[in-house]
Amino acid sequence: MRSSRDYVPRGASERLVAVLTDATHGSAMTDDVPPQHPPRCLIAKLGLDGHDRGAHVIARAFRDAGFEVVYSGLHRTPEEVVTAAVDEDVDVLGISMLSGAHETLIPPVLAGLATVDRLDDMLVIVGGIIPDNDRDELLDAGVNAIFGPGTPMEETVTFVRSAMRGDVDA
Question: Which of 83, 108, 122, 138 lies at a CB distance of 3.0 to 4.6 Å from 143, suitable for a disulfide?
């Protein structure tokens, strides 16, 4: 009699059968099978910035692109954002910043991620109004990309996908 562990869906490819067999029989999967999951993103609003329309727009664009999206809500502290990013095990942290407090609020987030050894394996992007004079400092501190007002959603989605594949220097 066959057990449910031996079940293979009708029409499954040989590759899928091999993966299912490895997964159901408890053997280690080979290194040539990359993890396949949609990017998991946290969209965060820091400080007293109450302008969240852009955060909602990018969250919806990411969701429509097949990403898993968690929204922090308004008025979060840097510590709350770091905790949420780690607890939710996100691949991407998107910070929406329109208040002008980017020099005060973003560096503690980056430092917090570095403290828990997540800064190097998490894509950190910032959207909103960041003056040209401040961009290099944020990029040098660990922000991977900054997207200003009017950036097409597809450009941001494409950047995240490329960075997740390692196609861009993030």
Answer: 138
